[in-house]
Design a protein that fits this description.
With 173 residues, the chain is mostly helical. It is built from five helices and no strands.
Amino acid sequence: MVMGMLSQAPLVAVAVAVLYVLFSRDMAKLEIRLDRLDERIDRVEERLGRLETAFQIYNSTLLKVLSRKSVLAETEVEALASLLLFYVPPARSKYFTEEVRQRLIEILKAVKEGKYTATDVKELKQISELIEKEGREARRRDLLEYNLKLQMLIAILEGRLAAKGEWPQDWPW
């Protein structure tokens, strides 16, 4: 019986070797397919990012043009500033600090009262960038959603200031 088993050993070794080679080839093909899938996912993510940027640019441009043409009046500006003031998110970490939050509140109060300047709007843009960075890194949806509304206000304010001739020519619009 032992001799019978020993005589089968070479056949078993050959079968294991063949299975190993076939399995290795299939795994290599699978890795190639997974690499291609990763490339496709990366391309889709890139395209979605560009689409998101395009929507934001369109929205911002539309609001700037409408506010510059005085379609959006100070009452809309005050209403949006009041909404943003009411819903200022809590500050929790490194970019959107309590100091930045308090400055945001000060500027929003000035906007609500109609006492804002181009410098205030420029500072709002910087705060918006901090909020977005914080929202993305900390995965805080509340900050990202708030920031979209803040960007709307910024676009409207830029248009209003440009209509009044108070937006500096050397600043991007």
